[in-house]
Structure formats: C-alpha cells, structure tokens
Design brief:
By secondary structure, the protein is of the alpha/beta class. 57% of the residues lie in helices and 14% in strands. A hairpin with a 3-residue loop joins strand 1 and strand 2 (58-65).
C-alpha cells in the first residue's frame, strides 16, 4: 500500500497553513549541508495538466499544485503565465497574506498540533517511539522537543525536514511562487488557516498513529514515492497521480479521505460556483489531490452544468 503520497497530501495541507516551514529548512541544511536534487526531477520537460471552467461570461483556470517542491524543478510555462496575467482574481487554499501572520499560525500550532498534558511518549507504543527518537536524532532534533507534539504533527515535522534534506523546498512550492507575484488585492482564499489546522487536529487517535507509523516507514525507505509524485504532477500524468494520491488515501482510511478531500472539494465547488455566477477571469491554485478523480473539483463543477475543458497540458 502506498502511504507516501498520503503523506504528500497531508504535508501539503500543513505546509500551506504554516507558510513555508522556514525553520525546518534551516535545520535540514545544518544536518546535511547542500542538498542535491535528482537529475530526473531537474531535467523533465514541464507539462502540468490543468482545467478551464466556463459559462457565458466567466473563465476559471483550475491549476493543481504541490506545496513542497525541489527548487530546480521546472513547472512554469508561457501558457500558465499568460493565464495568471489575465486573471482578475487568483484563488488559493488560504490567503498568502493570512499565512504571513506568524503569531496567529504559532497559536494555532499550539492549539491543534500539541498536547503537553498528554506527551508523545504516552501516545505511542515503545517500538514506534523508538523509531521516532532514532529518526529525530538523524535529523539533529532532540526527542524532548517532540514530546509535546501530537503524532500527526510529529509525522509532518519529520517528513518535512527529511524532504528538505533531499532537496525539496517549501519556498519553491507552487502557491509560494505564484503568491510572490500576486498583488494582495487580487488574492482570494477558499479556507482559513484555522480551518486547515482543524482538519488535521480532528483526526482520531487511531488515524494519527497509523499516519505517523506509515510516515516513519516512508522516510526509512527514502520517500521515493513523493519524488515520483512530483514527476507525475510536473508532466501531467493524471493516471499516476490518481493511483498515487486518491487510491492511496482511500485504502488507508475512508474517514481521512472524506475529511481532507471529499468535504473540502464540495465546499470549494460551492464557493467557486458562486464566483462563476459573476463575470471575469479567475485562476484557482489548489493541491493536486483536489482536482483529480470523480470527487475532484472539475468533476463537481461539470456536474453543476459548467463547461469544463481539460486536462490541458501546455
């Protein structure tokens, strides 16, 4: 069973809510020096697949994103840049300006990602705790720093640090790149930072534990599937993406799939339908897992009667 792209999806959610995880980047580079990116990632020809939704007076581009990418992975194209320049409004999962409120983000981290009254050593069995301790040591992170963390946050923290050590960079994530060139007045958000934290904070103990255990196994295997995920996304291989992401999450937990994919997609389809009732051009940049498959936003908007073209690769 492929759990690594389940991690990619949850990691994407968390990194989007944390505005780039800059501290984790610094720590990883201290651990391993200058990270190297595989030639496979660096040399591919970009062709990210996207969709165009329209009615008589509106056009909306639905562009799939990955929030953590190798810094030298090319994904931009003239066609995508043109679509961005033509957009009257650019939608993100969360407003980039909201992500910059680090005091608020830190408070939410404390609220949803930490449980000092029930430390990690009391939540995990001895074997899993020992694996966490060994990996943390490998990343130059003391186990004491992780004791107040909930298991889902431990998983995301260790995975992010390990990915950055392998050359992945939250600052190179698609939303971060697009957001740097987007005027504040054109930005729109589908959710709030607190909503994103609450999705992860609502996970049951069993799902949290299973998520952490699978994350540890993925890291120990080198996280090759996340690299495969990045390549499939960059070249527009939707069949592989659906297998790597959608099938993986469903096999792991239907409850988790409903929490982080189905319900959110339905909410977003309602918001975007209301936007389409107006006129003009919109560009929507959200995680790739939300746009593929029968529960994806393009399929939901098509079911509501809008014209949906795609996937388009340019």
């Amino acid at each position: 069973m492929n759990h690594t792209t389940l991690l990619a999806t949850v990691l994407a959610l968390f990194v989007a809510a944390c505005g780039g995880a800059g501290d984790q980047k610094a720590t990883a580079h201290e651990v391993d020096g200058e990270a190297e990116t595989s030639a496979e990632l660096a040399d591919i020809e970009p062709g990210v697949a996207y969709w165009i939704v329209s009615d008589e007076d509106s056009t909306m581009v639905l562009f799939p994103t990955i929030h953590v990418l190798p810094s030298d992975l090319r994904w931009q194209s003239e066609a995508v840049d043109l679509r961005l320049s033509e957009a009257d409004e650019i939608w993100f999962e969360v407003l980039p300006t909201e992500l910059n409120d680090q005091a608020s983000v830190q408070a939410l981290t404390m609220s949803y990602g930490m449980s000092p009254d029930r430390p990690l050593s009391e939540r995990l069995d001895a074997e899993t705790y020992g694996r966490v301790e060994a990996l943390a040591s490998d990343l130059a992170l003391s186990i004491e720093r992780l004791e107040p963390f909930r298991p889902w946050m431990v998983a995301v923290t260790l995975a992010t640090m390990d990915l950055v050590r392998d050359g992945f960079d939250p600052a190179s994530g698609v939303e971060m790149v697009i957001g740097r060139d987007t005027p504040d007045e054109k930005e729109r958000g589908l959710e709030t930072v607190e909503q994103q934290f609450s999705f992860l904070g609502s996970l049951s103990d069993d799902i949290e534990a299973a998520f952490l255990e699978s994350t540890l196994s993925d890291i120990e295997r080198g996280q090759q599937e996340i690299k495969d995920f990045a390549v499939a996304w960059a070249v527009g291989d939707l069949s592989s993406l659906e297998t790597l992401v959608i099938d993986s999450i469903k096999e792991t937990s239907q409850e988790l799939y409903d929490v982080i994919i189905t319900r959110r997609n339905q909410d977003w389809a309602t918001i975007l339908s209301e936007e389409l009732e107006g006129s003009g051009n919109d560009f929507v940049a959200v995680g790739a897992a939300h746009l593929i498959g029968e529960d994806g936003v393009p399929a939901l908007l098509a079911a509501r009667g809008y014209t949906v073209e795609g996937p388009i690769r340019q």
